[in-house]
Design goal:
By secondary structure, the chain is α+β, with helices and mostly antiparallel strands.
Length: 829
């Protein structure tokens, strides 16, 4: 059994990929097993009992149903026949197995039972080898293998002699040949039951048999573990079913899969065609689960139910703390970042083409900055240009060539040391020029630019043509003389309309399911494009502009989802008049919902804006509980001017930003409002300009105390007509009372200053009196000083009384003013 496992493992792998341990073990066991002349002949296996004969292993269970979700998971159902006691397998990767173990359901549908589910573990090989009683590593040698068998009972066959005993050791012997050469060879030391020690060299003719059954089992387990490293990421789930007779076995689970992707085609009919636009949707599906999807029921769910990854298939070990031995450590070497160098000049590069995509050689590209020319280039034979050496900043770029309209791009930002790519498409100049078209299907049916627009053509002589008044001229023949579109175009249109998606769609709560009515076959590791939508829709062709578009708006459609299906988010392409017109992105769209979808640049319309900011004005003043509440308003007006150079009217949708706290008014009412934009719709006649304004207003409220009001403030409020005569009269009373209080305070201050002056003079007089010596003249002077001090004391008494009286009056006036202010309550506009 051990040898069978060994060589079976070897046959299943490339010889170069077989681990050394497997080769050594197979070599040893093959040598041991090949020469057993002294053994009894091996017995043939007896007939297995009936139950055992009914057992099958490693059978596959086919996939029956697949449901794919936007959260990166898929729901899978397997259904197949089992008979008796049978095991079936399903292969996964390690990442998929974690999801399977979280969600696996197994059912024996006809009276049997599922007796067990197992899978190969992903524990580290060294940890799995530790579970064996055989101390052998992942990589081993013959000597190391025999050393691991020390103490085991062996039978050694050498030259027809059989030696039986327990293995004592493995030694390295040296032999000297007849020519004097020395070779080394391994030898086994065997201890017999009688106590004899015999050394047997492991020559090529020597075989060794392990005489212990349990040790043979351990060797087999070891070889199986070593062989398992070849398929490290293959996780095989084995489901064992127990029962009698033939039964249906059902298995379901959730597995990690690539997210399915949606992509759409919007087919716009020609201007003269009365048919409605057609929307076709496809889903890109990838099969990476390791099993073929053969005639499976496939459903695609537009929604993302919550899902997460948990590696429950990995063995979990408790994290124990590691306590290191004490020691000394040196500081590790460090690296330091280099300084940032100065960025070099920038580059503007790109291509110049016509509206049909044809590259234009010889076009002149001029770059200016603040009106000054900083560089000129000419496109090469491939329509490519390149201007180098431009310092970082914003530039204006003009593109011109004979026969085409000049186009300008403003505000092109150039960063130092980087390339800025600007690709442009030039329109044919002069609408009176005829069209010289090369022969070919659909040459006279222009798309791209709208109903009257069309691609520019070049004849064999290089003459440039365009559209004249909406009629196409083909070599001087008007469109009225040209036959209807060739049969192939009509057949293409008919095929588009006749195409059926074979899809049943239904709402699943917050999710939406596309269920294919016909089975799908997708082989493993392959992908498929599956139709999910084909429906006529309502489309309104417009040009869309906002501040991020520059001067040129985008060609867009205002699409209403009339398909009764929820359209999942994805990319879309527009086919206009049998010609590719552009592509864009679609966010999820509910049935009946309307959405703007842009897909190309509109080269026929230019939009310009001017901002007019008005000074802040006061709108209302109120007085309440001594507080003046003043309401003012900020106002600004944005003037939009759009010019239509096409020969057909253009419907322009302008997105004006929504700003918190601001309200809008103007000459045009928005037709739609989103969280970020007001959308205004205007129609611009051919070769004319249209202007409209949007005025924004924002109220601002401020307040201050009535007691702090000044004459200047009242004058300003009266001038702005912000207060009523009643409020003006009340504020004037406040100022008069404040002036009266100020006058009282001025009187108090004047008297306090006089008291201070008298006090300083008294100090001077007293100093002089102390200096007198008592002569007759000094006595007279002393008498005069005494009288002066007496008069001053009388004056001080009067002044102090006046200060007290004035202070009392001022306090009463303050109290009266406070009471008056608190009682004020008035408003005015």
């Amino acid at each position: 059994m051990i040898i069978t496992r060994c060589f079976s493992a070897v046959r299943q792998s490339r010889p170069a990929a077989i681990p050394a341990a497997v080769l050594f073990a197979c070599l040893i066991l093959g040598t041991l097993r090949a020469q057993t002349p002294a053994q009894a002949p091996a017995t043939r296996p007896q007939a297995a009992p009936a139950a055992a004969r009914d057992t099958r292993t490693a059978d596959r269970l086919p996939v029956r149903r697949v449901v794919l979700y936007k959260s990166g998971v898929g729901y899978f159902e397997h259904l197949g026949k089992v008979r008796g006691n049978q095991a079936v397998t399903i292969d996964f990767t390690s990442g998929q197995l974690d999801d399977v173990l979280k969600s696996l359901t197994t059912l024996d549908l006809d009276g049997g039972r599922v007796s067990g589910v197992s899978y190969n573990t992903e524990a580290a090989l060294d940890r799995r080898l530790e579970s064996l009683r055989l101390p052998v590593g992942e990589v081993t040698t013959r000597a190391a293998f025999f050393s691991a068998l020390r103490g085991a009972r062996l039978e050694v066959h050498s030259g027809g002699v059989v030696r039986t005993g327990r293995l004592l050791s493995v030694e390295r012997l040296e032999r000297r040949g007849d020519s004097g050469t020395v070779t080394s060879i391994d030898a086994l030391s065997i201890v017999s039951d009688a106590g004899e020690i015999t050394t047997v060299a492991l020559d090529p003719g020597v075989t060794v048999r392990i005489a212990e059954a349990d040790l043979n089992t351990e060797v087999g387990r070891y070889l199986s573990l070593v062989a398992s490293v070849r398929d490290q990421d293959l996780r095989r789930l084995t489901i064992s079913a127990t029962g009698t007779g033939e039964r249906d076995l059902f298995v379901s689970y959730v597995s990690e899969v690539p997210v399915w992707k949606a992509t759409y085609r919007l087919v716009l009919p020609a201007a003269a065609d009365a048919r409605r636009p057609l929307l076709q949707g496809w889903a890109i599906v990838d099969n990476t689960v390791g099993e073929d999807w053969d005639n499976v029921e496939l459903s695609l769910v537009a929604g993302a139910p919550q899902s997460f990854i948990q590696t429950i298939s990995h063995p979990l070990y408790a994290q124990r703390p590691i306590v290191p031995m004490p020691g000394r450590f040196l500081q590790s070497p460090q690296t330091h970042q280099s300084s940032l160098g100065t960025a070099g000049p920038g580059v503007i590069t790109g291509t110049v083409a016509d509206t049909s995509g044809g590259l234009i050689p010889g076009a002149t590209v001029r770059v200016t900055r603040a009106g000054t020319n900083v560089g000129t280039a000419v496109t090469d034979a491939n329509g490519r240009y390149r201007l180098t050496g431009l310092p970082a900043g914003a530039y204006d770029v003009a593109y011109s060539t004979s026969g085409f309209q000049t186009q300008s791009r403003s505000g092109i930002t150039v960063n130092g040391g980087m390339e800025t790519v600007v690709n442009v498409s030039l329109q044919v100049g002069g609408i009176s020029e005829g069209v010289a078209a090369q022969s070919g299907a659909g040459a006279g049916r222009g798309g791209g630019g709208g109903r009257g627009g069309g691609p520019a053509f070049r004849s064999a002589t290089g003459t440039v043509g365009g559209i004249a008044g909406g009629n196409v001229m083909l070599d001087g023949i008007s469109e009225a003389n040209v036959t209807e579109p060739p049969p192939i175009e009509a057949r293409i249109d008919a095929a588009r309309l006749a195409q059926q998606t074979q899809t049943d769609a239904q709402q699943l709560g917050d999710l939406f399911e596309y269920k294919l009515t016909t089975p799908v076959t997708i082989r493993k590791n392959q992908s498929a494009l599956v139709p999910i939508v084909s429906s006529e829709v309502n489309v309104d062709r417009v040009s869309l502009w906002n501040a991020s578009s520059g001067s040129r708006p985008l060609r867009a459609v205002w699409l209403t989802n009339t398909s009764n299906l929820t359209l999942d988010g994805g990319s879309f392409s527009v086919v206009d008049g049998q010609t590719f017109a552009g592509e864009g992105l679609l966010e999820p769209l509910k049935a009946g919902e309307r959405r703007l979808l842009s897909y190309a640049t509109d080269l026929a319309v230019v939009v310009d804006t001017k901002l007019d900011v008005a000074p802040r004005r006061t709108t209302k003043v109120q007085i309440a509980r001594g507080v003046v509440i003043q309401q003012t308003e900020d106002r600004q007006t944005v003037n939009y001017t759009a010019r239509n150079e096409d020969t057909e009217p253009r419907v322009l949708v302008i997105e004006h930003p929504v700003r918190a706290g601001w309200t809008v008014s103007g000459t045009v009412t928005p037709v739609e409002t989103t969280a970020a934009w007001y959308r205004y719709r205007v129609t611009i006649a051919p070769k004319t300009s249209s202007t409209f304004s949007v005025t924004e207003a924002r109220p601002v409220q401020s307040q201050f105390s009535v007691s702090n009001v000044t004459d200047d403030q009242i004058t300003l409020l009266v001038r702005d007509r912000a207060i009523s005569p009643e409020v003006q009269a009340l504020l004037r009373q406040v100022i008069e009372r404040k002036n009266a209080i100020a006058a009282l305070q001025a009187q108090i201050t004047a008297r306090e200053q006089e008291i201070g002056s008298i006090g300083r003079d008294q100090d001077r007089v007293r100093g002089n009196m102390q200096a007198l010596k008592g002569s007759s003249e000094e006595k007279q002077l002393l008498q005069r000083y005494v009288k002066q001090l007496d008069d001053q004391e009388n004056r001080l008494a009067v002044l102090r009384k006046e200060v007290n009286d004035l202070t009392a009056d001022r306090n009463r006036a303050d109290a009266d003013l406070s009471t008056f202010i608190q009682g004020l309550s008035a408003g005015g506009t």
